[in-house]
Amino acid sequence: MTRLFRPNRRRFLQSAAALGAASYGGFSGALSGISAHAADTSGYKAIVCVFLLGGLDHYDTLIPYDQASYNRYAEIRAPLLSFYAASPAGPSRARNRLLPLAPDNAADFGGREFALPENLTGLSTLFQQGNAAIVGNVGPLIVPTTAAQFQDEAVSLPARLFSHNDQQSTWMSSRPEGAATGWGGRFVDPTLLGGGAQSDQFAAITTRGNELFLTGEQALAYQVSVGGATEIELLNFFEGVRSEPGGEDLFQSLRDQLTASTFSGSNLLEQDIAAAAENSIVTNASYNAAVADAAPLATPFPQTGLGQQLRTVAQTIAARNVLLTNRQAFLSAIGGFDTHANQVSDLPGLQTEIDGAVTAFYAAMVELGLENDVTLFTASDFGRTLFINGDGTDHGWGGHHFVVGGSVNGRRIFGEIPPVDFGHPQDAGGGRLVPTTAVEEFAAPLGRWFGLTEGEVAAALPNLSNFSAPPLDYI
What we know:
Elements: H1 2-19, H2 21-31, E1 45-52, E2 63-64, H3 67-76, H4 78-86, E3 99-100, E4 114-116, H5 121-129, E5 132-139, H6 147-152, H7 164-173, H8 183-193, E6 204-206, E7 222-223, H9 233-239, H10 247-259, H11 268-293, H12 305-318, E8 327-334, H13 343-368, E9 374-380, E10 384-388, E11 393-395, E12 399-404, E13 413-415, E14 437-438, H14 439-450, H15 454-460
Parallel strand pairs: 1-8, 1-9, 5-13, 5-14, 6-7, 6-8
Antiparallel strand pairs: 2-4, 3-4, 5-12, 9-12, 10-11
Helix pairs in contact: 1-11, 2-11, 5-13, 8-15, 12-13
């Protein structure tokens, strides 16, 4: 018995730590101020963050296409393009193999044109259909900043720039590593305070850990794997022997032990831990039952890590009514983008994985009739340098991102796309872009679309008031 129990006990404790939302949410809420609920939570809406861990090379994703800009790009990146030409896929970054975009606001770029690599065929189609947009040069900022101000340290700058962990944290929370809450969770918070049909257990869900983005004052991230919520194998085993003599008593005794249902201590912390233990088992069972009862999706998803994560997100959304959620935030992620070397062999495959997963996810939302109610967006630690170091690139700052959904003002490129060159006002050196759109400016339209009031958006994005540019209207 002991040998069987230990591995399951570890899984249970991990699950209890991750899923004790109801218990710890109440405890945390008692310690913090609770504002009046005002968010519009009518209907259903969800935001889905796809985080590209490691720092996506935006120069190798949104590629200049007009002849003059492409020629300069090819000149600067000649060694990298030679690696592409010699790769098994051939010269996939040659101009005649790119997928040119025809944005409705092409005039905003003074004759400059853009394209996607052939690995992003699905996203190119969604863009041309009006169901995807691109937001240019997004990154962490405290105040509007130019390259000259950055070099002179004349303005406040985000802490520990170019560090993976810190910039992932800053993207998710506006704070470096060690932050307590993220703006996804802070978006969810006002939707929970009103009660009603909105469950706090399944409002913030991650399929790839990194709970910071989804953690708020009230919201806590619920973690699931592509196989569903974690269950205790030993308890499932004894579920199968309940009909045998003595089996029911044995099952109930084990369940009582695992859920700490007989705990009667007076210590508040022990009470919270006992409640979390019980909630974890009940919550996991509720989640798995709800997803199992939902009509299966006909949309096929790729058998890739991100494809299966987004399939799990889609299945969870399909079960939204049983889970009692009308506002949800999700986080999925894919790693491998820290392409200091081997970019030619690594990045195209990663782009293909993103493309297949996101395209399938949008098709699944169409199948569910929710394409206008679910918005997916990409995020990443940072962009990368235009300058190359052999067969790779270095850590950058600003980068370009996709937003996908039926409510998106698609077939448009928002924000700025600085020249693919050196020495311009946003070049911090080596083609490392100083962002022209802060993460807060990128996030704010999502918050408004999610149903938050202007006050709630401002509370969730405390640096937003430092930026006076007109709001991006990508959604």
